[in-house]
């Protein structure tokens, strides 16, 4: 292989604009991979907590005991645990207030759980927009670098009487590297965004279903003496 056409040599000899485009794309790629690993860990943790909590919740445990158990944990509850704690705390507060209609007790607890659910989803959705942005604009940024590099290659032939492939090949090759880096940044970002969005939608469905099921249990408890 001709060392003059090696990737490192081409990047080194590229114009400032093309090098700047490559730097932007590499930075976007590193940032997106950082978000991918952290978001994957975060979603796995949320799903694990949901599985463990639902197993406890539907095991027949008394709600008050489950509440005390979660509230006494050494570390801060997460995900569905926070939704349950917020709802049951509000329900208990309304019951202890006295002279509050059962329907009002349940509605208040449901409203608090909806707020906590929205906060959890907002937290889990963080950085997903960045992955979507990287996936959508990286190919165009790379294409800009390619067009700029090819344009410079042909402009440099203006004073040459006889152009040869050897004269334009390095410039075209270094320009195409920008497109390759753009695709390298975009493809993992798009795949990860789609995968994380699907998992988050499923987790959202589980959260919302739990809230509805928990409301039914609270309605029964609210009408008990």
Automatic annotation (TrEMBL):
**Membrane protein topology class:** Multi-pass membrane protein
Q: Name one GO cellular component term.
A: plasma membrane
Q: What is this protein called?
A: Tol-Pal system protein TolQ
So what family is this one in? Belongs to the ExbB/TolQ family.
Enumerate the UniProt keywords alphabetically: Cell cycle, Cell division, Cell inner membrane, Cell membrane, Membrane, Transmembrane, Transmembrane helix
What Pfam families does the database record attribute to this sequence? MotA_ExbB (PF01618)
Every MotA/TolQ/ExbB proton channel domain range: 80-208
Task: Describe its function.
Answer: Part of the Tol-Pal system, which plays a role in outer membrane invagination during cell division and is important for maintaining outer membrane integrity.
**GO biological process: any one?**
protein import
Q: Localized where?
A: Cell inner membrane; Cell membrane
What stretches pass through the bilayer? 16-37, 128-151, 171-193
Q: How does it assemble?
A: The Tol-Pal system is composed of five core proteins: the inner membrane proteins TolA, TolQ and TolR, the periplasmic protein TolB and the outer membrane protein Pal. They form a network linking the inner and outer membranes and the peptidoglycan layer.
**Gene name as annotated:** tolQ
């Amino acid at each position: 292989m001709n060392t003059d056409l090696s990737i490192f040599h081409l990047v080194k000899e590229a114009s400032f604009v093309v090098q700047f485009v490559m730097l932007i794309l590499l930075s976007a790629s590193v940032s997106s991979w950082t978000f991918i690993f952290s978001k994957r860990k975060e979603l796995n943790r949320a799903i694990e907590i949901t599985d463990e909590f639902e197993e406890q919740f539907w095991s027949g445990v008394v709600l008050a005991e489950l509440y005390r158990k979660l509230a006494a944990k050494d570390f801060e509850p997460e995900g569905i645990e926070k939704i349950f704690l917020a709802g049951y705390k509000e329900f208990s507060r309304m019951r202890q207030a006295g002279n509050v209609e059962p329907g009002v007790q349940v509605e208040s607890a449901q409203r608090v759980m909806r707020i906590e659910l929205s906060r959890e989803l907002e937290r889990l959705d963080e950085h997903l927009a960045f992955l979507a942005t990287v996936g959508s604009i990286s190919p165009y940024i790379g294409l800009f670098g390619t067009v700029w590099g090819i344009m410079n290659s042909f402009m440099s032939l203006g004073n040459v009487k006889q152009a040869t492939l050897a004269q334009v090949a390095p410039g075209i090759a270094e320009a195409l590297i920008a497109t390759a880096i753009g695709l390298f940044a975009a493809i993992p970002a798009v795949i990860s965004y789609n995968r994380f969005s699907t998992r988050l939608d499923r987790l959202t469905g589980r959260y919302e279903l739990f809230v509805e099921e928990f409301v039914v249990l609270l309605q029964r408890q609210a009408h008990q003496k």
